[in-house]
Amino acid sequence: MGIRDDLKRQALEVSSKAMEKLMADEKRAMAIANAIGRVQRGKQALDRGQEELMKAFHFAPRSDFKAVGKQLSGLKRRLRELDEKLDDLS
Questions:
Q1: Among 2, 17, 22, 73, which one is least packed by beta carbons within 10 Å?
Q2: CA 28 to CA 87: how far, in whole Å?
Q3: Cβ–Cβ contacts within 10 Å for residue 32, how many?
């Protein structure tokens, strides 16, 4: 193993031990879980607010950009396939 793998392994061991100590106390573990839940709910609220703001300004929401990106990827793939077929015909 190289030094990089050794460092990764050591870092994983240290972080694992730290998490064990951190979660050993049930009250602390619950507090951490509650904090993570609040952060997730806050992010969801922020995402909803952003979507509403985008709609209010008549901008396309992020989900529309993702959908268009997927369609564009499909079109690019189809174009490459057609290009290859044309090359084969030449």
A1: 2
A2: 65
A3: 14
Q: How far apart are CA 16 and CA 49, in angstroms?
A: 36
CB atoms within 10 A of CB 66: 10
- Are 23 and 32 spatial neighbours (Cβ–Cβ below 8 Å)? yes
Distance CA 75, CA 81 (A): 10
Task: Report the C-alpha gap between 79 and 81 in whole angstroms.
Answer: 5
Q: What share of the chain is helix, strand, coil (3-state, %, to 5)?
A: 90, 0, 10
Structure tokens at 10: 């050591």
Give the tens place of pLDDT for each residue, 34-83: 999 999 999 999 999 988 998 899 888 777 888 888 999 999 999 999 99
Q: Structure tokens of 24? A: 């050993």
HSE value, Cβ hemisphere, 13 Å, CA-based, for 78: 6
